Amino acid sequence: MADIETLKQENRIFNPPTDFVKNATISGMETYQAMCAAAENDYEGFWAKLANENIEWRKPFTRTLNETDAPFYKWFEDGQLNVSYNCLDRNLQNGNADKTAVIFEADDGQVTRVAYKELHDKVCQFANGLKSLGIKKGDRVVIYMPMSIEGIVAMQACARIGATHSVVFGGFSAKSLQERIIDAGAVAVITADEQVRGGKQLPLKSIVDEAIGMGGCEHLKNVVIYQRTGTNINFVQDRDRWLKDVVANQDSTCEPEWVDAEHPLFILYTSGSTGKPKGVQHASGGYLLWAMLTMKWTFDIKPTDIFWCTADIGWVTGHTYIAYGPLAVGATQIVFEGVPTYPNAGRFWDMIAKHKATIFYTAPTAIRSLIKAADADAEVHPKKYDLSSLRLLGSVGEPINPEAWMWYYRNVGNEHCPIVDTFWQTETGGHMITPLPGATPMVPGSCTMPLPGIMAAVVDETGNDLPNGQGGILVVKRPWPSMIRTIWGDPERFKKSYFPEELGGKIYLAGDGAVRNDKTGYFTITGRIDDVLNVSGHRMGTMEIESALVANPLVAEAAVVGKPDETTGESICAFVVLKRARPSGEEARQIAKELRDWVAKEIGPIAKPKEIRFGDNLPKTRSGKIMRRLLRVLAKGEQITQDISTLENPAILEQLKEAQ
Ligand code: ATP
Ligand code: MG
């Protein structure tokens, strides 16, 4: 794997604006470098100091890191805290009681504001309600909720009583929900009657019934239902309860359950891009610390900011940068119930203008679809809206293609907002590699440098460091506080997946390929390790070829995979979504030829796709990520037998089966 070639170098570089640098929490590269040096010199001291400064401990810790049972690392293990206390009560004590915590915008545009005091009271009532049902510390609670204030309150309420939550995205099927309820051994499910997205009412409670009806959920005693739409639902006596009854007459204070730093705060299943989802278990203390620090460092959060992360609470981004991080630092945030394309594809821009958002954090898949929409209809182009409140933009979830980055920078950020391209994973708990907005010169498509304290490196298959310019596998050499603690119920899979013996069993394997720039040392993610292509002995990441295709004015989105080839070992098969309608026949052949020549010119003849297939879309996870593993099967012309439980749009597979 040591020889992925970097065929093309990105030369554009954008410095953070001077006034941003002046006021930034981490201001200038020297400050960043000094922090990295501090971590290098005294790793435990670095983290201990931050943990003492940022978290309010009930009982201070005396031991920072315990490595005796590696890779089952423990952080701050004899310390005690409560995460909900740190997110809420602390804000009541430091003058934020009346500050708006959440600006909630419903699908239909209705806005509800909740101040910190009110949020605290709601969480306490919910927590007391859960206790009245007999739910206690250590129990697992599945949350299957729409984007809502109640969803966040449910998560915080679990944290308050020491119950471990497992949020399941509201778009998942009964089968996926059942598997997660069983795997987590949940005693309760918190859900809603329905959810509302894109003007449609979609069921939740009936899916919970179906999931439980599939069997195996005998440990489940309670289903708590939030009434979102008030539709009629099937109500099971002795098991189902309305949320309004559960919280009625409950006290608006609730003594937090003080837990050890290592107490599991939540279990969250990964997106399933590369295989069957894994139940990632996170601890309380280390996770909270990193949620707070990355809010401060990466997002440069200030008391006056209006922060907006568009993720769903069903994903880790919605955990760290909606349910916990913004509250723990006392920020005001926007929470959105709906979808970016309803009532039209200008919804995000409209909401930024309306609420005067200052920080906007979204995913490349959303950006690509909004580029396509703005191209087709000038009325929903971001330039039509007043986005002048924005000061910082962010991206997460997939590598962002340089051309999508440029569009975001120019049209949304008006060339004065830094973009933080944040590389991280469900397993990492928070950002790992990202520009710092007041320090790092940005390069489109590169997540640049690891945060202070994150010992990321690019190594070969046996764990040896590779020189800059040589592609390899991304690892993290030292444990960090917000790292995954184990895969719930499967410690062996945890070791095998993330700390393989081939790398010595102690360094974290991210599962992504990366390369560092010769001159700057910047990291670029080249794609998943499993997706590396080998064409005539040249090893290539998927990302570069996809980005070359996306740079063509006709192309909205692209995914490339390898296909066995007798002469070249592997040949490149590209799946392409055009900005215009899906072509067929002669037109398709014409455009395919044009795109092949384009890639040859942009990167080199070696990267030229042998085959190009057009679709209206690509197979994606429900979190919007391209599932290349399925495309690999289609390219080979084989039947799909893999886990597709997290596939959003199964119908698209049929369309992409045939080469034109
Ligand atoms: P599974 O682990 O089940 O296959 P997944 O890896 O898609 O699913 P997540 O934890 O949601 O689940 O996603 C993390 C992955 O997303 C990273 O490993 C990386 O491939 C990709 N990713 C996230 N942010 C970025 C980014 N800024 N640049 C490049 N890749 C990113
Ligand atoms: Mg993953």
Provide a brief overview of the structure.
The chain contains 19 helices and 30 strands. The strands form 9 sheets. It has a 7-stranded mixed β-sheet with strand order 5-4-17-16-18-19-20, with helices on both faces.
What are the SSEs and their pairings?
Elements lengths: L17 H6 L4 H14 L1 H12 L10 E2 L7 E2 L4 E2 L1 H11 L6 E6 L5 E5 H17 L7 E5 L4 H13 L2 E4 L6 H11 L3 E5 L1 E4 L2 E4 L1 H9 L8 E5 L13 E3 H5 L11 E2 L3 E6 L9 E5 L1 H13 L8 E4 L6 H13 L3 E5 L10 H9 L3 E4 L1 H13 L15 E4 L6 H11 L6 E3 L34 E4 L12 E5 L9 E2 L3 H8 L9 E9 L6 E6 L4 E3 L2 E3 L1 H9 L4 E11 L3 E10 L6 H18 L8 E4 L13 H9 L14 H6 L4
Parallel strand pairs: 4-17, 6-7, 6-8, 8-11, 11-12, 16-17, 16-18, 18-19, 19-20, 29-30
Antiparallel strand pairs: 1-2, 3-13, 4-5, 9-10, 14-15, 15-23, 21-22, 22-24, 24-25, 26-27, 28-29
Helix pairs in contact: 2-3, 4-5, 4-11, 5-6, 7-8, 10-11, 13-14
Written account of the structure:
The protein has 660 residues and is α/β, with parallel strands linked by helices. Among the domains are: 81-338, ANL, N-terminal domain (Rossmann fold, 3-Layer(aba) Sandwich); 532-656, GMP Synthetase, Chain A, domain 3 (2-Layer Sandwich). The longest helix has 18 residues, at 585-602. The mean pLDDT is 96. Bound molecules: adenosine-5'-triphosphate and magnesium ion. Magnesium ion binds next to loops.
CATH topology of the domain at 81-338: Rossmann fold
User: What is the topology, as strand order, of the major beta sheet?
Assistant: 5-4-17-16-18-19-20
Ions, cofactors and other ligands present here are: adenosine-5'-triphosphate, magnesium ion
Q: What is the CATH domain class of the domain at 81-338?
A: Alpha Beta
* Structural class by secondary-structure content: alpha/beta
Provide the CATH superfamily of the domain at 81-338.
ANL, N-terminal domain
Could you say which overall geometry the principal axes of the C-alpha atoms support? globular
Query: Unreliable segments (pLDDT under 50, ≥5 consecutive)?
Result: none
Note the total helix count.
Answer: 19
Percent range for β-strand residues = 15-25%
Q: What is the mean predicted local confidence, pLDDT?
A: 96
Main sheet record:
7 strands, mixed
Helical percentage: 25-40%
Tell me the radius of gyration.
Answer: 24 Å
Q: How many β-strands, per DSSP?
A: 30
